[in-house]
TrEMBL record:
CDD domains: SDR_c. Keywords: Oxidoreductase. It comes from Mesorhizobium amorphae CCNWGS0123. Pfam families: adh_short_C2. One of its GO terms (molecular function) is oxidoreductase activity. The keyword Cell division does not apply. Belongs to the short-chain dehydrogenases/reductases (SDR) family. PROSITE patterns: ADH_SHORT. The keyword Transit peptide does not apply. InterPro entries: NAD(P)-bd_dom_sf, Sc_DH/Rdtase_CS, SDR_fam. It comes from the Bacteria. This is Short-chain dehydrogenase/reductase SDR. The lineage of its organism: Bacteria, Pseudomonadati, Pseudomonadota, Alphaproteobacteria, Hyphomicrobiales.
Length: 258
């Protein structure tokens, strides 16, 4: 039994579809029901409307899962937003909104999921929480100050939770993607921040590939593959880690590209 927040987004859809393929029943939680999980069997996914910033909304969603399923094996916190501004041009409301979705949303879903995950452990399974950080939580892209700060907070929260709840049989990890081909990436490229000053994915495709050692950027399926491993028993000894998935981008000395 799995809950994927941001479950109708580009990465969230791919994660849900992969987990269903592996035999899981998935609750795809999002603000909108638009989009689909692709060729997934009917009845093995269920849409749940969820605003991760509202505590009552999160509590109700987890209560629904508890009533219908009685436990939760996998929680994937894929909901997130990005603000393309320096702090000088970021309003307090924008800053608070970024942290509300990326950090507080992760906190709330984990908080209310823990009792259900303890039930999963009592049934003899190891429960797995997979948060979403970013390589921007380690190094920074220009013009993404609030986003970078929020992802650094998710990294710290992930480690703390792994320490607190590992003794209960609940593993906690974070995936830290780099450039992944999603609508958010396309919006970033078209934006006024560090995304190329109004360029498009098409015009910037070669430039983006060339800054990566593997000469490509990732796909939602690449992220879903890592989620699937972290969620399963093969990753039973993996907890408290920040798994960077960026095609080697953050491994290189940037000046060597000049």
């Amino acid at each position: 039994m799995a809950l994927v927040t941001g479950g109708r987004g580009g990465i969230g859809r791919a994660i849900g579809a992969r987990l269903v393929k592996e035999g899981a029943t998935v609750y795809a939680a999002d603000l909108s029901q638009s989009g689909s999980l692709g060729d997934t069997p009917e009845g093995e996914t269920r849409y749940v409307r969820l605003d991760v910033t509202l505590e009552s909304n999160v509590a109700d969603a987890l209560d629904l899962i508890d009533r219908e399923s009685g436990k939760l094996d996998i929680l994937v916190n894929a909901a997130g937003i990005e603000i393309e501004k320096t702090i000088e041009h970021t309003s307090l409301s924008e800053w608070n909104r970024c942290f509300a979705v990326n950090v507080t949303g992760t906190f709330l879903t984990c908080k209310y999921a823990l009792p259900l995950m303890r039930k999963a452990v009592s049934h003899g399974t190891t429960a797995s929480i997979i948060n979403f950080g970013s390589y921007d939580g380690f190094i920074a892209d220009p013009g993404l100050a609030a986003y970078c700060a929020s992802k650094g907070a998710v990294h710290a929260l992930t480690r703390a939770m792994a320490c607190d709840h590992g003794p209960e049989g609940i593993r906690v990890n974070a995936i830290c993607p780099g450039y992944i081909d999603t609508p958010m990436l396309q919006a970033f490229f078209a934006g006024a921040g560090s995304g190329g000053g109004g360029g498009t994915v098409e015009t910037l495709r070669d430039a983006v590939r060339n800054v990566h050692p593997i000469r490509n950027y990732g796909t939602p399926a690449d992220v879903a593959n890592l989620v699937n491993w972290l969620a399963g028993d093969e990753a039973r000894y993996a907890s408290g880690q920040l798994w960077i998935l960026d095609g080697g981008l953050s491994a290189q000395v940037q000046q060597m590209r000049l």
